[in-house]
Amino acid sequence: MSGAPAPALAAVEAALGAAGFTPRGAFHPEPADGVPALAGGEAAATVVLAGNAGPTLWRAFTAASDPVRDLLNDWVEATVTQLAERFGAGVVFPHQGPPFLPFQRWAMRAEAVHPSPIGLLIHPDYGLWHAYRAALLFAVRLDLPERDSRPAPCDGCAEKPCLTTCPVGALAPARYDVPACIAHISSTAGADCAGEGCRARRACPVGRAWRYIPEQAEFHMRAFRAAHQP
Fold first, then answer.
1. What is this structure's pTM?
2. 200-220, pLDDT tens digit by residue?
3. What residues does each domain of the chain span?
4. If 0-12 CB within 10 Å is exposed, 13-18 middle and 19+ buried, where does residue 156 land?
């Protein structure tokens, strides 16, 4: 792949956007980033992240699949793999593992996201309503714009409602009580969180325009519950 001409980052991001994904920045990896080698052992020279923000990806997924029957991860893999082949890139996904790849580290290398008080990465525009779905790995060095270096919006948030809104106190700095969260969203009392999304996440004032729509939030909460229940 190193002999092929480098595609323009704008072309890659436009293709991702046309498929329903939100481009999530790019970076030139260093050995400490833990980016895997490409097929044949060649090192990746550029990583381009793909993800979602708001309901755009959800709408693309549900237009092509049945969310009751089909898995979002399967659709993401098929769609992004096809795009990677088009651009001569390798591709990896955060849901593949163990071992799991350090997507959060890559995200902080690629764009202005920062750990929030409840652990999720927060974006200055999207708030907590975003995710990372794939990384395209290029053997060639793409020209990249200067990285967005905006500070964490949490730095100027005195109230931090995300830390006081969870009905069962499952979220705290450096701690997430998953069993308490699962028990709550599996109960009648937790119908609000199960149907609308995490109440602590909804309490954050940043990025409210990007909030997941109810059916999208319910889909993710149902998948989260299924993954953590026996």
1. 0.94
2. 999 999 999 999 999 999 999
3. 9-138, 153-228
4. exposed
